[in-house]
Amino acid sequence: MTDTIDPDLIERGRKMFAGDWHFIWASPSIETLPPMGSMEVAFAGRSNVGKSSLINALTGRNALARTSHTPGRTQELIFFEGPPNAGLRLVDMPGYGYAAASKAKVASWTTLIHKFLQGRATLARVYVLIDGRHGLKDVDLDILKTLDKSAVSYQIVLTKADQIKAAELAQRIAETQTALAKHPAAFPEILATSSRTGAGMPDLRAAMIRLLDERR
Ligand SMILES: Nc1nc2c(ncn2[C@@H]2O[C@H](COP(=O)(O)OP(=O)(O)OP(=O)(O)O)[C@@H](O)[C@H]2O)c(=O)[nH]1
Ligand SMILES: [Mg+2]
């Protein structure tokens, strides 16, 4: 996939993400968001899909975002900022669809997620992460509906590509593409990634550079 992207974008993406990325803010509620500043890119997806791991893989840091093999690790909107000249923030989100959490917690996370995705002027792109082994589920479709109503552009990112064979991955991409036909607001291209092997990271970094270029 990487060879189809402008090598200059790949290199600029590599450089930007090799810089100093750090935690700046955690919001348990929509009332406590940080003041708007640079462009934001958010990572949404079901609990345990690999959102926090993806942020660590992108930034080449093992423990910038907190991960765990039990669902429900990230419970707030977590903001990370890059080097001053990057002009970009990454937003790690709580997962949705986590059945074992209390009803009150699920309701409060769901409200927070949907409100943030609909009403943040500096939010330029949402990456909706889908487990490459499982594909799109009903809870994912709820998020796509919210995003269709908002002004923000979004793209599907398949995760944990290292866990499946190439043929299965190709099939998952095809299925997801078919489902996206009902969501014209979605970016048509689907990215396949693995935080474990680093597959797809150069592409994702380059995509963010392109987005920054468009916004400048
Ligand atoms: N094999 C493999 N495992 C992964 C990958 N990405 C994440 N994982 C594993 O999946 C589990 C969940 O990862 P997290 O990054 O914490 O998932 P999350 O989406 O942030 O989860 P919540 O914060 O609970 O919503 C961890 O055990 C990770 O090691 C990947 O690319 N490949
Ligand atoms: Mg997390």
Automatic annotation (TrEMBL):
Q: Superkingdom, according to UniProt?
A: Bacteria
Among InterPro entries, the record links this protein to:
G_ENGB_dom, GTP-bd, GTP-bd_ribosome_bio_YsxC, P-loop_NTPase
Q: Respond yes or no to whether keyword Nucleotide-binding is given for this record.
A: yes
Q: Give the CDD domains listed for this entry.
A: YihA_EngB (cd01876)
Cofactor(s) demanded: Mg(2+)
The UniProt keyword set, sorted, is: Cell cycle, Cell division, GTP-binding, Magnesium, Metal-binding, Nucleotide-binding, Septation
Asked whether the UniProt record includes 4Fe-4S among its keywords, one would answer no
Q: Name one Pfam family in it.
A: MMR_HSR1
Chain ranges of the EngB-type G domain: 37-214
Entries under PANTHER family matching the protein? ENGB-TYPE G DOMAIN-CONTAINING PROTEIN, MSS1/TRME-RELATED GTP-BINDING PROTEIN
Q: Please give the function described in this protein's UniProt entry.
A: Necessary for normal cell division and for the maintenance of normal septation.
NCBIfam families the record matches: GTPase_YsxC
Would you identify the family this protein belongs to, as annotated?
Belongs to the TRAFAC class TrmE-Era-EngA-EngB-Septin-like GTPase superfamily. EngB GTPase family.
What protein is this chain from?
Probable GTP-binding protein EngB
Which organism is this protein's natural source? Rhodopseudomonas telluris
Q: Which gene encodes it?
A: yihA
